[in-house]
Amino acid sequence: MSQESCEVYIVRHGETDWNAAGRLQGHTDIPLNAQGMLQAQSLKQVLSHISFKAAFSSDLSRAKETAKCIIDPHPIPLFESSELRERHAGSFEGKSFKEVDNLMRQFFISRPGASSQEEYLNSVWHPEVETWSSVFCRVKNYLLSHVHPYTGQAILVVSHGGVIRSVLDHVNFIPKNKWVISNCGYIKLKIGQQLFALEETVGVLSKPLF
Q1: Helices of type H across 6-116
Q2: In 3-state terms, what secondary structure has residue 90?
Q3: Confidence of residue 123 (pLDDT cuts 50, 70, 90)
């Protein structure tokens, strides 16, 4: 590993009842269900060969529970932050993914240039819904301000599907695409002073958005 960068594993939390029901969660605090705990245990085994030096988590319970499971019983620090939360979706939280995707699809179909990266990331398709650029900026700024002590090492970050999607849409944008991240899927980044690069994806698929 480069001594000038840090390996960052950003994991999506395990399954919740709202995930299983296809409901949008956003900042709503929904805990893991039994399947989510099993997924976290399974990922713990997959990542057991990695010597994480610290863990960071969204302050929402589904992420914290996943992080605690993965790092147990290793005595490494776990830091929680609202900066690592899921994309805020206002009154859409609790609604079905199908309903929200249909509204978003209609918005982008009606807008010329919607397939461009800048337009897609900054579009305010509804005033209550956080833009992808906003999500990415708060997460990137948080990571850049915290990874320096772990240069040359690996850290764990447990967050949400929307957070991982925002990163992928910035570093690996595909027009008219929606990234789909499975529960306990993850991406591996290399982050340094002048570096923010995607190294690996696991449990990540893409599908047409419109």
Answers
A1: 17-21, 34-46, 61-71, 97-109
A2: helix
A3: confident
